Amino acid sequence: MSLEPAIAMLKRLELFSGLDPVRLEVVAFTCERREYAPGATLFDAGDEADCAYLILDGEAAMLARDESGAAQALRLDRGDLIGETALFDETRRMTTVRAVSSLQTLRIGRDMFQRLIGEFPEMAGAVAARLAGRLAVLGQELSALGDRLDANTNKMKKSRSADE
Prior knowledge:
By secondary structure, the chain is of the alpha+beta class. The chain has 4 helices and 10 strands, in the order ααββββββββββαα.
């Protein structure tokens, strides 16, 4: 398989958007290509997370359980990046991912990714911008949650006052 499809997909990912084509080619060449048969498991919940996977071709399913224990599935296909948090920190997988069809991936290892950030400042800037954006969204979500909790607390206080 030529590097062009992988380079084109990497270029669309925010994490790699700051890299010029030559450096994207280095990334695509450095990453390991892996193929999975339908039904094969890329990783299980609880596994050590040391890499992310970019789907080059095929379809996968991310499997998890919600608060009630009910099974949830998310369809993943070409161009999706799976498990990118593993690129930044040592952690465990929160979900299981299985191939639904024949699946071709690009395995992006944490060590290689961290080395790239050190070597290419423009990539570090793109990563920092993405993380800052995520933190801003998380802050907004937490603020909205705090507002809802305050509103519920006030309703409960009013209800108690009316009962007394």
